[in-house]
Amino acid sequence: MDKKEMKEELVKSLKEYSEKRVYYVQVNKGGCRVELDVNGLLLHNDFTEWGSTGSIPMNLSILKSGKQSLQVKIYPTSQQKTLTDITRLQVTVTYGKTPNSSIEEQVTVLDWNLPKEIIDQKLSYYETTLDFDAAVPYDYTYRLDDAVDLRKIPNIEQLALEKMKEIRQLYEAGDVETYWNMVFDKYSQYANSLYQTSEEISEDIEDDVTFFGYHKNRKIFPINDYEIFFYAEGRIITLLERDTRESILKSSYIDEQGFECEDELTIILYMPKGNNELRIF
Length: 281
What we know:
Blueprint: H1 3-13, E1 22-30, E2 33-38, E3 41-46, E4 52-57, E5 66-75, E6 88-96, E7 107-113, H2 116-120, E8 126-134, H3 142-145, H4 156-173, H5 176-193, H6 198-212, E9 216-220, E10 226-231, E11 236-241, E12 250-254, E13 260-264, E14 269-270, E15 279-280
Helix pairs in contact: 1-5, 1-6
C-alpha cells in the first residue's frame, strides 16, 4: 500500500463510538528502573538511571471493558543491587471522557505509591499487580484469544530474530509500503482504540514515511546483545536490548540542523492460530 491506500484502508476500518474514553498512566520515578504491563501486554519500560515523569496512553493495551490488571515491576538502578532510600515510584491511572479532555478534566481511577516498608526491605526486585476498571466501546480480545503459546515452540528465539532482521532490512531499504502491510491490523486497532480522525491518521503515516526515509549519515545499529521476553501467557514476544530494555531496531542520523538524533522501532510479535509465521501484534 502507498500513502493514499494506507490512509483509505485505515479510515474505512474506523468505527463510530458514542463514548470515547482515553486512559493514561502517569509514572513518577526515581532511584529505580520500572516496567509496566497491562493485562500481560508490555506497555512501557523506563530503565534510565535518573528520575523521570510522563503520561502514557493505555488504550492499546486495554482490549475490552471490565477489570484491568496493571503489573508494576521494579528493579534497582544498574549502579545498585537493591532498592535504596532514594527509591520512589508513583503510578496514577486516569481517563479523559474524550481524546480532547484537558488534564484538569481527567478522572483518577488509581493512585499508588511504592510503600516505604517495601523500600526499607532493600529488595533486589519487587512486583505488584494493581487492578482498576475501564469502560471502552471496543473489544480486541479476538486478536489474542486463539494465538499460539510461543513458549511451546522450541526454536522461537531464532524465528523471532529472523523476523526482526526482516523488518530491519525493510527499515534499511526505506520500504515503508511493505512494512505497512505487516502492521495494518495493529494500526487499525490503534486508530480505533484512540478514536483517531483521518487527519491524525495522515500525520501518523507521514511520520512513518519520515522515519523510514532518507536521513543524512544514517546508521542502523547491529542486532547483538538482546534478550527474549514473553508476555500475555506466552502469546506475545519481543526482543529487547538486555540492559536498557530498549528496542533492538535503532538508528542514529544527522538532522537538518546538524544535530545527532536517534530513532527506534518497537516490534511486538505473535502467531495467530492456524499460522506458522510470526506477525506484528
